[in-house]
């Protein structure tokens, strides 16, 4: 008998459409898209597949239930009515996280305590014991209260999906792997075009591009909380991982390169790229953005330039943007994509962006500035943008 469940893919603000597109490409079509989350019907093996494959999502949650809760009694009874023992074994660890917004039950610690007691009472009924050791497996419960409605979930992921496993060391203020993947997907870059990052830092954008090009599932190198759960048996993970390994296309030629003015950053990027398995396929060099000479025509630059609020030096950040603009003069056929909070980038590029998209780097509000070059897809997009 197939177990039907509901999953939630959480998303950073502004990336809901990107994650929804990823889900559709994986074959999930019945999607409910809301701010910061996408809910969809699934089966237990889809916990494995979505954790392994989603590039821009934050984590995968099992939706246990949702109900009105304006009193602690309603929260207790609604939580107790859910099927916790179907998921959590008698020796499982089940901490409770919580959030509350625009709800009468505004004390998060109190809500966490009520949910914990309700789950324990439900577990007592199933397992016939008064004490739970909580020493095997991790089943993180989250109670989210919004407008007096409580939603209860189980976190299948553990460490966020941005933790790919290839980045042991990072430069100062690194770009999250999930955001790097989203920037690439928004750019619609394809492997037949050259790709370059002149502020490559830890090499995250370059590695994510290579993983996209070779169709490498981003979660292949890590483990997840739900491995070993009773309803997500090891054979399901084995099946999903075999599917992912079989899908790799490492015969695709890569035209991916990057540079940074900081030799220490290039040293870190080299180590990360090697660990990710692309040591022979991604080229790196130490140089300023003004001197870059990427190979090929009709290429794509995707980058996260340094800026003062992030790295603490406005003059250096301004100089970096000026160099970025200078590089565009020598690459007339290329398209440029820059993720930054600095509006002056349009001044340094010498023209307004063809498109802008508001996104957040942590808590810093940024724009993704898109300057389309001539030829193919970008020429068409530029024409469409000018008509709006």
UniProtKB/TrEMBL annotation:
<keyword id="KW-0694">RNA-binding</keyword>
<dbReference type="Pfam" id="PF01170">
    <property type="entry name" value="UPF0020"/>
</dbReference>
<dbReference type="GO" id="GO:0003723">
    <property type="term" value="F:RNA binding"/>
</dbReference>
<dbReference type="InterPro" id="IPR002052">
    <property type="entry name" value="DNA_methylase_N6_adenine_CS"/>
</dbReference>
<dbReference type="Pfam" id="PF22020">
    <property type="entry name" value="RlmL_1st"/>
</dbReference>
<dbReference type="InterPro" id="IPR029063">
    <property type="entry name" value="SAM-dependent_MTases_sf"/>
</dbReference>
<dbReference type="GO" id="GO:0070043">
    <property type="term" value="F:rRNA (guanine-N7-)-methyltransferase activity"/>
</dbReference>
<keyword id="KW-0808">Transferase</keyword>
<feature type="domain" description="THUMP">
    <location>
        <begin position="46"/>
        <end position="156"/>
    </location>
</feature>
<dbReference type="InterPro" id="IPR053943">
    <property type="entry name" value="RlmKL-like_Mtase_CS"/>
</dbReference>
<keyword id="KW-0489">Methyltransferase</keyword>
<protein>
    <submittedName>
        <fullName>Putative N6-adenine-specific DNA methylase</fullName>
    </submittedName>
</protein>
<dbReference type="InterPro" id="IPR054170">
    <property type="entry name" value="RlmL_1st"/>
</dbReference>
<dbReference type="Pfam" id="PF02926">
    <property type="entry name" value="THUMP"/>
</dbReference>
<dbReference type="InterPro" id="IPR000241">
    <property type="entry name" value="RlmKL-like_Mtase"/>
</dbReference>
<dbReference type="InterPro" id="IPR004114">
    <property type="entry name" value="THUMP_dom"/>
</dbReference>
<dbReference type="GO" id="GO:0008990">
    <property type="term" value="F:rRNA (guanine-N2-)-methyltransferase activity"/>
</dbReference>
